[in-house]
Amino acid sequence: MKFWQLRFTVGLSTLSVIGVCAVFQIADAQQSRVTPRNSQNEIEIVRLRPNFYMLAGGGSNIGIQSGTDGMVLVDAGSTDSADRNLAALQTISALPVRYIVNTSSDADHVGGNGRFAKAGRSIFAMGSEAVGGEFAREMTNGYAASILSTENVLKRMSAPTGKVAPFPSESWPTETFTNLRRTIFFNQEGIEVLHLPAAHSDGDSIVYFRSSDVIAAGDIVDATRFPVIDTKFGGTVQGEIGALNRIIELSVRPMPLVFQEGGTYILPGHGHVYSQQDLVEYRDMIVIIRDIIENMLKQGMTLEQIQAASPAKGYEPSFGAAQGPWTTRDFVRAIYEGLSKGH
Fold first, then answer.
1. Residue 29 C-alpha from the chain's centroid
2. 200 vs 205: CA distance, rounded Å
3. Which residue, among 226, 189, 169, has the nearest Cα to 71 in the 3D structure?
4. Residues 268, 206: Cα–Cα separation, whole Å
5. How far separated are the first and last CA of the chain, in Å rounded?
6. Which of 222, 319, 330, 331 has its CA 20 to 30 A from that of 97?
7. What is the pLDDT of residues 149-205, one digit of tens each?
8. What is the mean pLDDT of the segment spanning 32-48?
9. Is pLDDT at 217 greater than 80 in this prediction?
């Protein structure tokens, strides 16, 4: 596997290229992994395939398919990183963003929706402007790029009449779906948007780029911590494991010629790119912790007793956190609550 990595520092009006480097190749014993930096001014561009890139360091990871039809994005990063992400994005292609696919309603995934959509151009604008397509203009927020998600993502981002929505309307999805699969054919590539319910939340999607052999998994996979299971919005550990199994089924390893480049790239919501084997190990970790907690529940242990027993201790050095927005205790509690309710 070869990645090509560009690192950009974005100031008020300047964009300077800091470096270009080949990151790793499986044929070599030395592998280095791409991890987003913590600097407020740094965005990394990682080229995964000739026509597929990842932006890291501006909220969530952003997947980018680029071609003669324009660009398709998976997620849009955070609001405060939108301008820096957009500046980095414009170094990839001069063609506009056509679609933004949201994998969830999390603020660090959808915060840049409005900025990217306005800077982009809806595919429905092609030909409509010439004939004064006012209906198309209204339906696309002035020919802004389309924002696609499950219907539950739109519900989380908007609000009932009379209530205050958590996100401005220009960031809301403009196209939604309720079934388990939505397809797009763009840049001569089939793209599947697959709804995997009740995993990280009840609105999760993964995006499978079939020719590129890249799966953007959103926060179903988080290479920096234990996966967030948002029980408030329908997340469950059983759904999380089921979603990981589905991604594993869709992906392939570079077998039998393991010395050659190849295999599916899995783009997590945060952190370095995964292979299928990485994802199997990630899935197994969650299954092991789930089974330990389930066994403790059968013994009649309370949540406090389970927390004291540290069922995730073996994995805490790599994925645990004692403080912050998602701690090891939060992860254990989410599994406990789900199992207690039978899911």
1. 29
2. 10
3. 189
4. 10
5. 38
6. 222
7. 999 999 999 988 788 999 999 999 999 999 999 999 999 999 999 999 899 999 999
8. 63
9. yes
On the CB side of 156, CA atoms within 13 Å amount to: 23
Which tokens sit at 306? 């389970």
> Which stretches of the chain are assigned E, i.e. beta strand?
4-10, 15-22, 42-49, 52-56, 62-67, 70-74, 97-101, 146-150, 175-177, 181-186, 189-195, 205-209, 214-222, 265-270
The token pair at 255 is 């077998």
CATH topology for the 4-288 domain? Metallo-beta-lactamase; Chain A (3.60.15)
Q: Is the bond into 256 cis (omega within 30 degrees of 0)?
A: yes
Structure tokens that stand for 266 in this block:
């899995």
Q: Which of 48-57, 131-140, 319-328 has the lowest mean pLDDT?
A: 131-140
CA angle, 150 then 156 then 160, to 5°:
115
CB 216 within 8 A of CB 265: no
DSSP letter string over 170-231? GGS-SEEE-SSEEEEEETTEEEEEEE-TTSSSTT-EEEEETTTTEEEEEEEEETTSSPP--G
Distance CA 203, CA 156 (A): 9
pLDDT in tens, 224-238: 999 999 999 999 999
Question: What DSSP designation does 240 have?
Answer: H
From the CB of residue 256, how many other CB atoms can be counted at a distance below 10 Å? 7
139 token code pair? 């339906």
pLDDT by residue (tens digit) across 150-163?
Answer: 999 999 999 887 88
Encoded tokens for 319: 């994925």
The residues that bridge with 150 in the sheet, in sequence order, are: 177
